[in-house]
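ESCALATION

Customer reports they have been waiting on this structure for their group meeting. Please prioritize. Original submission:
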Amino acid sequence: MAASRPGSTRAASRGVTTARLVQAGTVSNSRLRIPADQLPNRSPLQLLSTARQDLDDAAEQSRPGQRYAEAHMAALRVAVAVLAVRAGDAAGRRRPGRPSSTWELLQGAAPELEEWASHFARTARKRVLAQAGIPDIVTAEEADAIVADARRFLDVVVRLLGFSALAR
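Update from on-call: job pushed to the front of the queue and completed.
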């Protein structure tokens, strides 16, 4: 069925313009939009489980930049799990007309995680640079530290949300 492929929607049959299927990671349309009904729908438990696996994978990376970026992305997934549980709590705290980062939303939804949100917000730029492949942007010590921080953050959130099945 065509609607099950990324980039194809039922909306196309109603005359709504949609982006074509993007092949091999190339983007021919800078305004690519994925319809909401085609976005991955993961539960908070699935997000946390995936984050734990991502952290295990990150720890095995030999390149510090890749280790840093993967660990930071795992922390981002942990934050999204909290937002999925407490989405209504953050909705009224956004400043109108201003986009919010995941870390800003997390501070509103879970004030008890404010220090974690601030920490990962401060390190987000370095993650972006590491993802871009900028050489020597991250030391091995920084990469190890962000992996450890992301693991602690995951453990805090697992306890906070009561997902004892994921506790280590």
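Sent to customer with the following note: The radius of gyration is 18 Å.
Escalation resolved.
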